[in-house]
Structures are given as C-alpha cells and as structure tokens.
Amino acid sequence: MTRLRGAPEPKAVPLLHEFSYVAHRSLDELLSFLAHHGDETQVFSGGTDLFVNIRAGLAAPRYVADLKSVSDLHEIAFNEREGLSIGACATVNELIANDTVRDRYAVLRTAAEQLATFQLRNRATVVGNIVTASPCGDMTSPLLCLGTDVVLVSVRGERRVPLGEFITGVKTTQIATDEIVTRVIVGTGRIDAAGGYRKLKRIKGHDLGVVAVALIKSMPAVRVAISSAAPTPVLLPEFGADAPVAEIQASAQAAISPIDDVRCTAEYRRFMVDVYIRRLMEEVPA
Ligand SMILES: Cc1cc2nc3c(=O)[nH]c(=O)nc-3n(C[C@H](O)[C@H](O)[C@H](O)COP(=O)(O)OP(=O)(O)OC[C@H]3O[C@@H](n4cnc5c(N)ncnc54)[C@H](O)[C@@H]3O)c2cc1C
C-alpha cells in the first residue's frame, strides 16, 4: 500500500469489540457471576441480536455469558394447570416444531414462521426476541394476545412479570443487570384459540416487520395486538365476539402512535393496521 509522505501510520482497527466469553454449567454459578459482574456482562442465547449490536458498536460488554451451557433452560413444556413454558434457550424453530404449539397455540406458530429465515430461526430464541424488546419483534404481539408472563431470576430470588409490563420502551425492559429470564409462561386462558398474524415487509422475502397485527378469537372474546406502530407492541382492550370491525379499527387507531421512518410512513402504517384487522377478522374462524 502506498502512503503519502507525512501521513500517519495506519492503525489496526478490531472488527469486533474484545470481550471475555464465559459459559457456566449451572444456573446458580451464572447468577452468582451476574451478582458480581452483571453491569459489565451481556448474556446471550442465539446471539443474533447481541453480536450484531456488538459489531455495530451499540454494545460493548466486558463479558458475554452463554446461556446455552446452562442445563434446564432449553425445554418447551406444557401442562394443563400452568400452560406452555418456553425456556430461555428454546429456539424459534423448536417452538414451530412443538406439537402442543401447533395444536393449541396456533397464532404463536404462525408468527414464529414469519420470523427471519429457517437458518436464523435455528439460532434465534423466543426469549431473546422478547428481551431485545424491539417494537417490530415478531414474538411479542402473539404472546401478548395469548397472555404471557416473564419469569426473571437472580440471586435475590424469582419474580414473574406480565409481558406487557416487562417491556418498558423501545428496546428497554424491566430486567435488572443481575437477572436473567429463565422462561416465559403462556397461560391456559386462551388455549385452542384460532388466530392469525399479518406482517408487512419491504420485500417479499424475509425481512423485519414494518407493521404487524396478531389477532385471536378466543370465544367469546377477540384479542388484538399490534407491532411496529408505537414504542412498544400494543395490546388492545378485549372485544366481544360480535364487535364490528370498525370498532376494533377505531380502537387500534386510538392506541397506536406510528412514526415516519426510512422503512415506511406513519400514514401507511395506520392504513395497513386497518387492512390487517379487517383481513384477520375475515380469515380467522370463530
Ligand atoms: C438477519 C436477521 C434477520 C432478523 N429477522 C428478524 C425478524 O424477521 N423478526 C424478528 O422479530 N427479529 C428478527 N431478527 C432479530 C433476532 O434474530 C431476534 O430478535 C431473535 O429472536 C433474538 O434471539 P437470540 O436468541 O438470537 O437473542 P440474543 O442475541 O442471544 O439476545 C438478544 C438480547 O437479549 C438478551 N438476552 C437473551 N436471552 C436472555 C435471557 N434469557 N435473559 C436475559 N437477557 C437475555 C441479550 O443480552 C441481548 O441483549 C433478525 C436478526 C437478524 C440478524
């Protein structure tokens, strides 16, 4: 490489911020590590959000702690009393392949199938999607419709928070630096509900949602949640089975506050929310 006389020596710039990788075998070990180093650590599971952020300079943790080495965080389990428990390391493809999800939590599977590509879903987790708390995360709206709690654990103990309270803003949650989410629990209240998920993208292939609507008919109620149309996904108040589409659309328009950005105008987002509510009300069987 030629260099102008007097020009400074080129510096080697690392492609990735340097960090230490830690992998604990037990949850207790991990929690005690976080009790001491939580404010300089980021845990990860699939890493499909975290490492993109590190690479972009948006996160610079001293430690990255791999949750996959911890046993007991991988399971997707169901029982009639508690509902569906989705472990922190359960991938989106594992959710799609689960028989109970296919048979009894239809809207969850439909939305999961629209998250990125097959290859990415082999790594990406449901819990990672929620903790990222992106307004366009594909798992949040269906989970809000179904009624979901987030289980947070630290050396201080365990707490259970409704998903709607867990996400506090754009990419912010209630999680403390010494806590991890061990699982989410989808209740039994809307089990077997018919549902649908409509997602607007810029391209026909795989893309982040420009705006998305999840709708379930858990008779006698209709529940609707909307993504990418406000700082956090919005769950509308419950509607009766015979609520006119116009009433649901009016409620949605009052609840959302979309923005203009490089991907879409606020006006078009509002328009598509109305379109998707109408289509889902027609498509989803009662
Ligand atoms: C090419 C590409 C396409 C994508 N397309 C989509 C898409 O179509 N729809 C969509 O919704 N998303 C999409 N994403 C974003 C991403 O794949 C998802 O949000 C994914 O579900 C994140 O899961 P993960 O396990 O990889 O998270 P990670 O990267 O492991 O973690 C994400 C964040 O959550 C924290 N975290 C993870 N697990 C826990 C836990 N158990 N306790 C506490 N904190 C935790 C991490 O510290 C990090 O801040 C895409 C990403 C890429 C790179």
Task: Note the topology.
Elements (H helix, E strand, L loop, with lengths): L19 E3 L4 H11 L3 E4 L5 H6 L7 E4 L9 E4 L3 E5 L4 H6 L1 H6 L1 H7 L5 H4 L4 H7 L7 H7 L1 E7 L2 E6 H4 E3 L2 E2 L6 E7 L7 E7 L10 E8 L2 E7 L6 E2 L3 E2 L4 H11 L10 H18 L3
Parallel strand pairs: 1-3, 2-3
Antiparallel strand pairs: 4-5, 5-10, 6-7, 6-10, 8-9, 11-12, 12-13, 13-14, 13-15
Helix pairs in contact: 10-11
The site of flavin-adenine dinucleotide has 29 residues, from strand 2, helix 2, helix 7 and strand 10.
Approximately what portion of the residues adopt beta-strand conformation?
15-25%
Q: Assign the CATH class of the largest domain.
A: Alpha Beta
Task: Give me the CATH fold name of the largest domain.
Answer: Uridine Diphospho-n-acetylenolpyruvylglucosamine Reductase, domain 3
Tell me the number of helical segments per DSSP (H or I, 4 or more residues long): 11
Give helix % range: 25-40%
The count of DSSP E runs of length 2 or more, i.e. the number of strands, is 15
Return the CATH architecture of the largest domain: 2-Layer Sandwich
How many independent structural domains? 3
Give the SSE order as H and E letters: EHEHEEEHHHHHHEEHEEEEEEEEHH
**Alpha-carbon distance between the termini?**
69 Å
Spans where pLDDT lies below 50 across 5 or more residues: none
Give the rounded overall mean pLDDT: 94
Bound ligands: flavin-adenine dinucleotide
